[in-house]
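A brief tutorial aside. Many learners find it easier to grasp structure tokens once they have seen a single protein encoded end to end. The record that follows does exactly this for Relaxase domain-containing protein. Read the sequence first, then the structure, and try to relate runs of similar tokens to stretches of the chain.
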Amino acid sequence: MATRAPAVPVWGVTMSIHKLSAGSGYDYLTRQVAAADATDLDMPLADYYAAKGEAPGRWVGSGLGDLDGLEPGDVVTAEQMANLFGDGLHPLSTDENPLRLGAAFRTFSNDRAKEFAEQIVQRMEEANRAAGLPAKAAVDRATVSRIRSQVAAEFFAADHGRSPRDARELAGAVARYARFRTGVAGFDLTFSPVKSVSALWAVAPMPVARRIETAHDKAVAKALAFLEAHAIYTREGANGARQVETGGLVGAAFTHRDSRAGDPDLHTHVAVANKVRTTGGKWLAIYGHVLYEHVVAASEVYNTALERHLADDLGLEFAERPAEPGKRAVREVIGVDEQLCRAWSARRADILARQGELTTEFQATHGRPPTKTEAIGLAQQANLETREAKHEPRSLAEQRATWRAQGDAVLGAGGVEAMVNAAGGRTPAARSGEVTAGWVQEVAARVVAEVEARAAAWQDWHLQAEALRQVRAAATGVNLPAGDLGAVTRVVVDAARSRCVNLTPDLDDISEPEVLRRSDGISVYRHTGADRYTTTRVLDAEQRILASAGRRDGARVDERDVDLVLLEAHANGQGLNDGQRRLVTALATSGSRVQVALAPAGTGKTTAMRALARAWTQAGGRARTGGNVIGLAPSATAAAELREATGMPCDTLAKLVHELDNPRLAGVAPSWAAAIGPEALVLIDEAGMADTLTLDRVIAYVLDRGASVRLVGDDQQLAAIGAGGILRDLTRGHHAARLDVPVRFTDPAEAQASLRLREGDPAALGFYLDNDRIHPVDPATAADTVYRAWATDRAAGLDSIMLAPTRDLVTDLNQRAQADRLAVADGPDGGGVWLADGCTAHAGDVVLTRRNDRRLRVSATDWVKNGDRWTVTAVARDGALTVRRQASGLTTLLPAGYVGEHVQLGYAATVHAAQGATCDTLHGILTGTETRQIAYTMLSRARHANHVYITTAVPDAELAGDVHVPSLFDLDATRTATETLEEVLGRDGSAVSATTTSFDATAPATRLHQAATRYEDAVHAAAEHAVGPDRAAAIERHAAHLLPGLTDEPAWPALHARLLLAEADGNEATSLLSTAIHERELVSADDPAAVLAWRIDRLAPTARGVLPWLPAVPQRLVDDDVWGKYLSARATAVNEHATTVIRDAQARLADVDERPRWADAVVLPDDLATVLAVWRAAMGVPDHDRRPTGPAQTSPPLHAYQRHLDRAVASWQPTSAGRPWIRLAVAATGHHDDHTAKLAEHLADLHATGINPVAAVEHALARGPLPDDHPTAALDARLTSLEQHTRRQVEQRRLAERQQAAPSDHRRRSRDMSHGPSL
């Protein structure tokens, strides 16, 4: 199922979160504990100061109150960690007395993985014997990797009938065959202060260092308390329908002193067990979604508390330091030298460099990138090889001595003392102000302004996080002790919330019984984060834009005049295709005051806009005698490109808004702005990247002056950094003009694949896999691999670009390219200058300017713009750069101040900076955390070949630069490159407006999903209540007795609920279970509880309820005074909402512009499509999930009904034309998959146009083996390429025949069918 990325950008945080795998994921923490005797772990401070390694962990969390024998602050032992995080037991469990905390952590069986592991072990023993060693002797890593590759290749050959054809297939084979899935044992929350705090802690006198560490500990405690109050919940019921309260978290806190590079890095790991106790006494898993949503807010709690504690205790002051564009400024300690922080980051760079070298050697040897385990080994080797000779664990005394010496080396004699005195000896600023109601309202207003500037809608945790930032900044002038922070922040959040509009209030008017309400009275079905907010300012702006789009009183061009312009363009060799002509005609002749044109990447948008501008200039305006056209764009670079392509005057949206906010003297405003009048048409390019508030200002101004607006863009490329999503609303409500045929790509199959990428269809990957465009890489070598491919293309004369999703990865690529250039040039030509990205620039380097500055002129009409790329021609002594623009050759001087803050190396770029660019080849990096929009924008830049390099071997946190997370923590490291891309395509990052958020919350499908979910769970909850806790417990004990381990199975909660429902319906649950268990064997079942649920459903079938797959209310509950009326109301709500969904589905299916995307993916009769619409709505399947029935269901009644629907859908797929070609499609690929029906339809189309499908398939397969992933889609793409190639051959032959024919030969020639495919 597709997921939606966070609506509000997540900024850099100092509390990170990572999953802990069951088993040994916690080892990293206990391995680093100081080597003290277990009976003497409560050592005096002096002993701890001298001990090697880290201090032992301490138990934390309110949940300890539910664990007898443990108190907060108790020392954590390795045995206790093994019990809790390894086996899910009480930490004090023993072999004789294992104390269970609910179900054991699940390890998912995998026979293939077991066989793979056994083969590797066998080969390792054989290698040892061949070397004359004991069979069980340790084997070096290189040999293990070689064996792993060999066995994986053999397994692959057995499954596919051939060897892996490339590194991607071999790496994928290793990942799949070695995959063992384990449950989530917990979460590692890592708290780290800003760099300046760690630096000061490292070199300050010991009493001061202790006080810094105490402040850090207090801040960690504040953050944990915040999480317990807002985020530590669990779920119960059908599909986790109920969010229920818990007794708090159980955690083990470990404070570490340094990074893996040995630099001072005070940080605390809190391993939070994935075990929480409900108020009803059940031990269940943490509600992970809510926990993850509150990470940023918890991080800000920590930051704010730390800053206030340090200010109160040591008088430290903090100030913002400039950050890179797009990042929030970081508050650092005033007085701490930045040089020292930079110096302590250098060794990490050395480690990464050596790791890259080792990884390159590994890939050259083994023909694939390393797996996660192998990458860990290479990182450890790099760490050891770059360490000083003494690399065993050091005591704190030794560390502090080393850090002091390093500080002296960087800052000079007396420098450390001067820095410490400068930081701690400051006179605190006077805090004469008080926290008044006015102060609270001022801070709340800033909170709302900040979140409003970043998204159209937000959740409560966004307000909490921003309130903490604003309170932290505003607290410098008021008397606000650390102890009052929480209360003041809550008041600010309440005040900010009062300024917002709730877009998604709970519309359910059925009051829950008391047992279905939390302690605050809120329904258990109302989950944290369900409320989404906006402001009346955003809502009003959206409504004004939507209303403007309904006006038809604008100027227009006569359609005949448009035709003349198009004929003229054709005669001049600038012909437009059918789609472009339709778009130009629609935009020119509509008379709409505001109109949208959707243009996917590479569809010829610029050509169409050029023709539109010409038509309007020649025959537009109110009198249709000619008007004027003005272009606007979100960025100066886009405006410049539009100006160059069309010749019209162009500028930025921000420039026009600035003119409106700062009116000039009469006659001084830019001529293009003054020219906006009744005869004008304003074209806004890349409109999807413009924020709603800016668009509202511009559109209102343009319409007030009598002009019209055309918004041109793509709602599936990158969105605005701000309140956005209005483009999609306009498209939905006002039938946008569209371009839908990509013309950029040389291969028509790539054009088709790009459109599938845009829609998030995984079948798009078939083309890229088949054409070797998807490359798995290790992060350590990603930059080098991409650079080498890019450099090869550039050397071949191709226009190639390198892209990455983050600035850190872009910096890696830039430094790699610069290093190669300098190596060729025998070193830099003269001195260099520091840039904003932390790199240095020398003469000859390519740089990128990142800020518009109209004062820095390039010509009389041009200036330095954000996104301009330059070559450095000279470096001045003061840090200024003389640069030559690559596009125009014009030169200018960039002052030192601008260079240091707004210039970076420019060999590579972020995906955002590249939107709108076109090149010959593209080489880009994806880490797997991106959205579909980023992947689509990246992979649609190049005409000839778009290559993507997927980092798959190490945790996502490593890619983001988090140096604290141990690699053992990652649970997703076995994803293949294909699986990673599939996840990316399923992650929707498109902007969503406040209007759409509100619309979706009240949509019939949403209401039915909520009603059906609540009804189904309420029936089970009522059954459990009616049966009573004693009988429910007796049934569970009986199950555990009949089949030991049954109650630990993943499906036990569902089976238990089904047994309770049967009991409430008059059956004897224990007898039913006994019958089901003894019916036949369960040994072969992966999850016996799931199998038994099926058997119970057959032995005691439940009457169907208001929907065919929902249970009816047992008569015992119908007659219940409390539950009867409540469940009746729930059933009525389901029925009413289902009826509404049916009416809505019928209307949408009848309107070609409103048909949901899933309905367009299949050919179905309307009655079946309507039934599917009800099912999808009730199950919460989003429109963009193209599977007709959505994700597979496991519950017996749901699974049975889904199979019924799937069979009904299959009977209509493919169409009658495609059905005869199914056998060929399956025979060609060797299996049947989700794309088989589409391939059969394609074969039918080929047959209908005179191309022999059998011969076409044979020709396509002659290219070589299909990829192991998405082979059917790959074959489909090959046929598309072949079909277009064949058609071009036919056209060329016919053209040659006409040219050879005598001029007097006017005889009509019959169609020559011999010119079919050249196969």
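Self-check: The longest strand covers residues 264-273. If you spotted this yourself, you are ready for the next section.
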